[in-house]
Amino acid sequence: FLWAYLSFLFCLASYFILISRFHQEVDEVTSSVRTSVKGVASTEDRIWDPVEYTLPMQASLHLMSANSFFVMTNFIKTENQSKQRCPEYPFDKAICNSDNFCQNGSADILNNGIQTGRCVDYNVTFKTCEVHAWCPVQSMENPPEPAVLSGSENFTVLIKNNIIFPKFNLTLLNTPLIFNTSCIYDKATSPLCPIFRLGYIIKEANQNFSEMAVKGGIIAIQIKWDCNLDSLVYDCSPKYVFQRLDDKKTMPGFYIRHAKYYKLPDGEEKRTLFKCYGIRFDVLVSGIGRKFNIIKLIKNTGSMISYFAVVVTAMEILIFVASHFKWGKSSFYKIYRRKKYETVLDPIQVMYVSYVDEPHVTLIKKPLKTSLQHTQGSIVQSNKNHDNEGSEPMCTTESNKNNDNEEHELGKLLKQEASSSDWQKWCCCGKCQPTQKYHEQLCCRRKKGQCITTSHWFQQLVLSHDTLEKALLYKDPFLNLADGNSNKQLRHLAYKQYLQWRFGCFDLEDRAVVPSCCRWKIRETYPKASNNYTGFKID
Fold first, then answer.
1. Which whole-number Å values give the CA distances from 115 to 81, 93, 97, 165, 282, in the listed order?
2. Which one, 124, 162, 416, 501, has least CB within 10 Å?
3. With contact defined as beta carbons under 8 Å apart, do 219 and 245 qualify?
4. Are 149 and 41 in contact (CB under 8 A)?
C-alpha cells in the first residue's frame, strides 16, 4: 500500500510538473514588425493605389507606433484652399450678430484660423466671425455613405514578424519555410499564411466592413507565440487574434487630415485638404518560449514539495479547529487521533493480556483497582493466532508415536485437576488458583467456557516435553537435560512458548501476563523441587 501511495504521489507530481511546465526555463519575445499593403481601387475621378491611400499613415507616424498601419476607406475633400480671409464654419462659438461678438487675434480650439474681429455673412442663414486661414475652410459635415473606398475590403496586407528569444539566442519569423506568395490567411485552411485580406480581418473581429469603412476605427492584430523549444516536442507557430479597440457606441471611428500642396503659375500656394477616415491596424506581438532546464526543474520540484507540506499543515489546522466543535466528538475524529498519535507509556506501568475467546491483545494500565480479569483496557494488537488455532503450527516436529503417549499422560493429569479446582469469581474456566492479589487474578477466558489448558494445542505447544526438549536442543545442541535443573529450563521455555503463541512475536516477556490456570498448569507439569513459587512472577 505504501508503494502504491508513493507511486500515485509521484505520478501526480510528474503530471503537475509537465502540465505547469515547471521543468522549463521561460523567455519573453523581443519583436519587430514590417507591413506592406497591396490593392487598387477606383472612384469617379481617380485611381487609388497604395501610395494614395497609405500617405496619411506616413504623415501621422507621430500618432501611431511603428507597429501600426493605416488604410483610408472614406474622405471629405476641400479643394483650392489658399491663405486669405473668409467666414468661419458656423459652429456655436463662431456664429455672431455683430463685430462685438468677434475678438481680433483670438482663436478657439475649434477655429480653422485666427479671428480678424469682423462678423461677416457665411450664407443667407448665418453670420460668422471672419478668420485668417486656408480658405475656404473645411466643413464639419458627416462623411459620405457608402464609403468612397468601399472596395478596400479586398486589399491585402503582408505582415512580417521577426522575433528573438535572447536567453536561447534563437530568431524566428512568422513566414513558413516554404512560403507561397499567393496564399491568403484563413484560420482553418491557411493558419500560417502571413498575407491577410482586410475584409477577413474585420469579419474575424465580429464587425461589418461596410459600416466601419464610413467613419473608420481601430483594429488590433494580435500575434501570439507560445513556443516549446525542446527538440523532442518542438512547437513554435504564431496564432492570430483580431479585435476592435475603439468603442463603436461612444465616439466611434478614426480619421486624420492630409493636405496636398501645389503652386499656381503666378506663384500663389494652394492646397487640397483631405479629411481621411480609415482603419488603423495595430499589430501587437506577445509570447514566451520554453526550454528544458535542469536547475529550474530542481528548484520548482523543491517548491512543489514545500507546497505539499503547506497543504498538510493547512489540513492539520483545519482538523484542529474543527475538533473544538461537534465534529470533534465524531467517531472519525477519534479514529484519526488514535492513528495519528501514539501514547508512549512507561513499560513498568502497563501489562498485556490475551484471552482465548477474544481476537486481540489488551493493554492494562497500572495501578489496578479491581482484579486484572475485570479491569478494562485498550486494544493494541490483533491476535492472528486466534483465527488460526485450527491450523497446524510450524514449530511442532515430534513423531506421531511420541505425541500419542504424551497426550495420554497429560489427559490423565488434566482430568484429575478438573475435579479438584476451586471456581473463583474472576475465573471463567474453573482451573485458576485462588489468590488475593489483583494482578494475579487473570483467567484465560473473558467469558465462561472451556479452559485453554484442556486444548490439544496447549498440550502440544506449551506442555509437550518432546517439543520443549527439541527446542532447547535446537538452541544449544550440547545442553545436558539429564541433570536436576532441566525442569527449570523446560518450565521457562513453556512460559515463552505460551507468550509467543498467544501474543505473537512481541518481546513481551516482562509485561505479558500468563493466566493463573496456564501458569499453574506449567508449574505442575514441570515443578520445582522445593515447590516454592513467587506467585505472579514467571519462575
1. 17, 12, 15, 57, 39
2. 124
3. yes
4. yes
In a domain, 9, yes or no: no
What residues are paired with 63 via a beta bridge? none
Output phi, psi for 151, to 5 deg: -70, -10
* Per-residue pLDDT, 1: 57
Judge whether 415 lies within some domain.
no
Cβ contacts of residue 256 below 8 Å, gap of 6+?
56, 59, 60, 63, 70, 276, 278
> In the block, which residue shows the cell 501611431?
64
Instruction: Of 249, 273, 263, give the one whose Cα is nearest residue 112.
Output: 273
- Widest distance between CA atoms in the chain: 154
Give the residue carrying C-alpha cell 475465573. 427
By CB atoms closer than 10 A (0-12, 13-18, 19+), residue 12 is: exposed
* Nearest alpha-carbon partner for 207 in 162, 172, 166, 254: 254
> Same domain, yes or no, for 433 and 320?
no
Residue 488 lies in a domain: yes
Q: Count Cβ neighbours within 10 Å for each residue of 363-393 and write b for 16 or more, e otherwise.
A: bbeeeeeebbbebeeeeeeebebbeeeeeee
Between CA 206 and CA 203 the distance in angstroms is 5
C-alpha 261/C-alpha 264 separation (Å) is 10
102 phi/psi in degrees, rounded to 5: -110, 135
187 shares its domain with 280: yes
In angstroms, the CA 259 to CA 60 distance is 12
Q: Are 112 and 88 in contact (CB under 8 A)?
A: yes
According to the model, what pLDDT value does residue 347 have?
65
In this prediction the pTM is 0.56
* All three cell numbers of 203: 469579419
Strand (E) positions, 200-313? 217-228, 238-244, 255-263, 269-292
Whole domain around residue 107: which residue ranges?
A: 93-132
Asked if residue 129 lies in contact with residue 24, where contact means CB atoms within 8 angstroms, the answer is: no
* 10-residue averages of pLDDT along the chain (539 residues): 68 71 82 92 84 60 61 92 94 91 90 93 93 92 90 94 92 89 93 95 95 94 92 90 90 89 93 93 92 80 72 76 70 73 68 90 86 87 51 34 42 40 75 88 92 93 90 87 80 90 72 90 87 66
Domain count, the chain: 4
Question: Are 128 and 168 in a shared domain?
Answer: no
Provide the terminal-to-terminal Cα distance of the chain, rounded to the nearest Å. 43
Residue where the block lists cell 461677416: 120
Are 301 and 429 part of one and the same domain? Answer: no
In order, the DSSP letters of 36-82 are EEE--EE-SS-EE-HHHHTHHHHHTGGGS-TTEEEEEEEEEEEEEEE
For 68, the grid coordinates are 501600426
In whole angstroms, how far apart are CA 509 and each of 51, 116, 351, 496, 497? 105, 122, 10, 7, 10
